[in-house]
Specification:
Blueprint (H helix, E strand, L loop, with lengths): L3 E2 L6 E2 L5 H6 L36 E7 L3 E3 L4 H5 L1 E7 L4 E4 L7 E7 L5 E2 L8 E11 L1 E12 L4 E2 L1 E2 L2 E4 L28 E12 L9 H13 L10 H8 L4 E7 L3 E3 L12 H18 L17 E5 L23 E4 L13 E6 L12 E3 L2 E3 L6 H10 L30 H6 L6 E3 L5 E7 L1 H4 L3 E3 L13 E8 L37 E8 L3 E6 L11 E4 L8 E3 L4 E3 L27 E4 L45 E2 L1 H4 L17 E8 L3 E8 L5
Length: about 700
């Protein structure tokens, strides 16, 4: 281990005058043409840059800065690479504590020793000799100075076995979400996510005239278009064409629109909080189709579990939608909404029954978003279907969770996702659970390399990255970073100029309440922190399989779909449970507590402040500053493009600390040891430079 332990000098300033501290704690990111960091000197020319005098020593209060290493490779950052220790000492009180991680109180300013150019602690640095001034403010302000070197290091171009390992969907087939009843969002017996899956689309009306379809032929036409049309036959996509593209051809949804079922009750007499009415209607509609229309339900049971694979109820009603913004589900306690739930019927392989159902308002399928229709005397002529809602709910039909928060005070996943705000494509975590994609895993087989990602939505290409000290468990159910190159193409294209549902002028006027209100307008790198570690009960057993102690519920690296017993090793492990969620009140630690319980899917933006955790998160929806990218790539010919188009080009622990519950560490306690920088970018590819920051002990 290299150490750079220097008492250059330290100074203490009584009171709260923090001019010196403010001067060194600048924000912002590099715009250097070499793609290295460097915040420069504002309006000063390079020739006038000077390095401040070192701090003045105090005999009473001081900090001592020690670097784990004082020599790091080019492309690394000061904080992640040198890994400073900052120990504050107060001789008056006898206090001594480590304060390097107190990022609201401890600041770092880096100077190029030759040019005096100023850098931030999370800037990727070019080769050179550097000086770092560290300041700590706790009523008093104290400082210390250290020096370090950045050595020129040429990255290799990654290839299989040198930088990453490629997995296939066959490798992950056993970990398909539908194999795990306790991980799948609504339990078992959901709709299959691969193969030729036929579903039933059942239009439902009520006995009162105001809750009946006015034109049955039009209803059938609209629903067939919304659910089963080919690309180009709808204003956007149908449910079927969307999922065929999103799954890269692995899921082919077919089926039929049934005759209209009339539920013999006036909808004005139904208690809107009684959502069990939806499953009652679905069950009765299925029985009616069997007995009155001779339906053979076995053709709708691809996985032969005795349940119809998917029943999508689209109902007419005289009742208004709940007074909610955003997406809702059964937990909204309002029947007249859109949600996915389970019926309680029994399994019957010969004559399958209702199980997983989607309950949707007809007016949410036939809104005028992306419409080419015209209203003509009580009906619409032309295309007017919009399947965004049914696409989202079909994600639940197959077991995917919601990524928005039901607590309504945060938006951790960043909103640009089909299972968040109903726009664009599904992210790679969802697709990996559906077994549509598999990652390239950065595995530590190279420490300094470049790697190129293709458009994620077009190819399914993505990276999974973990600390090298904690290898991936080779399942979707682990903690890791997920990197995918977003492009406004394919399933993202239609929404990239904004989706009508999210276009709402703010109260002050002139701007959209929901930011851009759609998928991102231009390409950029998306980074997510995924923590979907599963938990299970582990019980000690003897050679006869008899329990010899209490079961312990804790995280597992071997998530199992069924109970497993190993009498030789002396334990049995139960099936894996999903315990993390994007709604804080629903996310739990293994001990059942919710305090600091991990978020399942957290978008990491380039800013140092996690603005997805505030009640104004919705104003960030689709903003380009949420993405990593090169300023040199952005479309400078567009007059509406502003300086600072991307939020930044470098990911580091220091930059992302506010997005991690444990600050500079993963939720499992491991330290992420990669700096990732965007170095090249085109319309459909992005090249990243990885530098490992592990320091040998």
């Amino acid at each position: 281990m290299k150490s750079n332990k220097k008492y250059i000098t330290a100074w203490a300033l009584l009171g709260l005058s923090i001019v010196g501290l403010a001067a060194c704690d600048k924000t912002g990111t590099s715009s250097a043409s070499t793609n290295t960091g460097g915040s420069g000197s504002g309006n000063s020319s390079e020739s006038t840059l000077t390095i401040p005098e070192p701090p003045i020593v105090s005999n009473v209060r001081r900090i001592e800065v020690t670097l784990k290493t004082d020599d790091i490779p080019s492309g690394s950052t000061f904080f992640d690479g040198c890994q400073p220790s900052v120990v504050y000492t107060d001789d008056d009180t006898g206090e001594e504590e480590e304060v390097y991680s107190r990022y609201n109180m401890t600041s770092y300013t880096i100077y190029d020793a030759e040019t005096a150019e100023v850098y931030e602690p999370d800037d990727a640095l070019p080769a050179g000799h550097y000086i770092c001034d560290v300041y700590y403010q706790n009523f008093y302000i104290v400082g210390d100075r250290v020096e370090f070197d950045v050595t020129e290091a040429t990255p290799i171009e990654a290839e299989e076995g040198k930088g990453f390992k490629t997995y296939t969907t066959e490798d992950l087939a056993d970990y398909h979400i539908q194999n795990f009843d306790k991980i799948e969002t609504l339990g078992g017996h959901g709709m299959p996510s691969s193969g030729d899956v036929d579903i039933l689309v059942v239009p439902v009306q009520f006995s009162n005239a105001a809750a009946q379809f006015k034109n049955p032929d039009e209803v059938k036409t609209c629903l067939e278009e919304a659910f089963f049309a080919e690309t180009g036959e709808t204003p956007w996509e149908s449910l079927s064409s969307y999922y065929y593209k999103s799954s890269y051809g692995k899921l082919n949804i077919g089926g039929e629109v049934t005759p209209i079922y009339t539920y013999p009750v006036d909808d004005t007499t139904i208690n809107s909080s009684d959502i069990s009415v939806s499953t009652t209607i679905a069950t009765q509609a299925v029985n009616w189709l069997k007995t009155e229309h001779g339906y053979d339900m076995s053709k709708y049971d691809l996985d032969k579990d005795g349940y119809i694979d998917g029943i999508q109820i689209v109902y007419a009603t005289s009742q208004t939608t709940p007074g909610m913004s955003g997406t809702g589900d059964a937990s909204s306690s309002d029947l007249w909404w859109n949600f996915t739930t389970n019926a309680s019927g029994s399994s019957n392989v010969r004559s399958p029954n209702a199980r997983r159902i989607f309950w949707s308002r007809y007016d949410y399928v036939t809104n005028t978003y992306y419409s080419s229709s015209e209203y003509n005397g009580g009906y619409y002529e032309g295309k007017r279907v919009d399947p965004h809602t049914i696409i989202h709910e079909t994600g639940h039909m197959m077991g995917a969770p919601d990524y928005y928060s039901y607590d309504r005070t945060e938006g951790p996943a960043g909103q640009v996702d089909m299972m968040d705000n109903n726009v664009g494509d599904h992210n790679a975590y969802t697709k990996m659970m559906f077994n549509w994609v598999a990652p390239r895993v950065v595995d530590g087989s190279a420490k300094n390399f470049t790697i190129t990602l293709k458009s994620y939505t077009e190819t399914g290409d993505f990276l999974l990255v973990k600390p090298t000290s904690d290898p991936w468990n080779e399942t979707p159910y682990d903690e890791y970073l997920m990197l995918q190159y977003y492009t406004p193409t394919g399933l993202n294209e239609m929404d990239h100029e904004g989706y009508a549902e999210w276009q709402q002028e703010s109260a002050s006027g002139g701007s959209n309440t929901y930011g851009h209100g759609g998928t991102y307008e231009h390409p950029g790198l998306q980074i997510y922190h995924v923590d979907t570690r599963a938990a299970s009960y582990v019980t000690p057993i003897d050679e006869n399989g008899t329990a010899t102690g209490e079961a312990v519920f804790d995280y597992t690296d071997t998530p199992r779909s069924d109970e497993y017993a190993d009498r030789v090793a002396g334990f049995k492990e139960g099936e894996a449970h999903r315990i993390h969620d994007n709604t804080p009140s629903r996310s739990h630690n293994p001990d059942g507590t919710t305090r600091k319980a991990p978020t399942e899917l957290q978008a990491v933006f380039p800013s140092r402040v996690n603005s997805t955790g505030t009640s104004s998160y919705y104003s960030l929806f689709g903003l380009m500053t949420n993405l990593y990218g090169l300023e040199s790539y952005r479309e400078t010919g567009d007059e509406t493009t502003k300086e600072g188009y991307y939020g930044g080009d470098t990911f580091s622990v220091y930059q992302a600390r506010d997005y991690f519950t444990n600050g500079y560490f993963f939720n499992d306690g491991s330290r992420f040891d990669w700096v990732i920088q965007v170095v090249e970018q085109t319309d459909d590819t992005i090249t990243l430079h990885f530098v490992n920051t592990t320091v040998a002990e």
